[in-house]
Give the backbone structure.
Amino acid sequence: MLNKVPAVTLFFWLIKILSTTVGETAADYLVVHAGLGTVITCAIMTSLLAWALFIQIRINRYVPWIYWLSVVLLSIVGTQITDALTDGMGVSLYLSTSVFCVLLAVVFGAWYRRERTLSIHTIVSRRRELFYWTAILLTFALGTAAGDLATEALGLGFRLGTGIFAGLIALIYFAYRLGANPVLAFWLAYILTRPLGASLGDLFSQTPEYGGLGWGTINTSIAFLSTITILVLFLTFDQRSQRARMSKN
């Protein structure tokens, strides 16, 4: 089985941040503005996620559209899990953030114990892929809780929250360039892109009186989904071009 995760390039990080933003705005739109409610939205998104992951796991190579569709759906479901705990069950953001940190650490510990690596460049077996997608789901849930904790519970606001999370990711990048462990740097940055994307989503979608730009959830979701689609199409055509060149050689 070929590696099932794309190369970590600028496109990777752009699509990842955009997908986390869509997870925030699309979940809010479906629950509140479309009137589906938390239960129905969770049921629909979980069913779509199960279908996407079923295809993703069955294929034996990286296919851009199904991989990134799975990421977008995981973002929405991860957001819904945290929102259900916070809004539906009254769980504090401090507690949910702590619990998701522990759960993610447990998954990483089990993954490393069985495979002796957490590198995304070696997702070449079913077991590693299952560890990978479980970790991804928890990073989205954790990122949602941490982002809401920072921007709402701690009162940082959307603009300051966006700046802080972007600054933390920049620090991790500089640490990586200076020789920090690349696997650790990747996962820390990956976790932080979720609260960054959530803060961006709130910044664009919320009304000016709440510190946002007033785009609304549907316009923000459409704009970011359209951008993701364009980037994924580009990656798909680029992948096919590379295969054509390799077959000629």
Notes: The chain has eight helices and no strands.
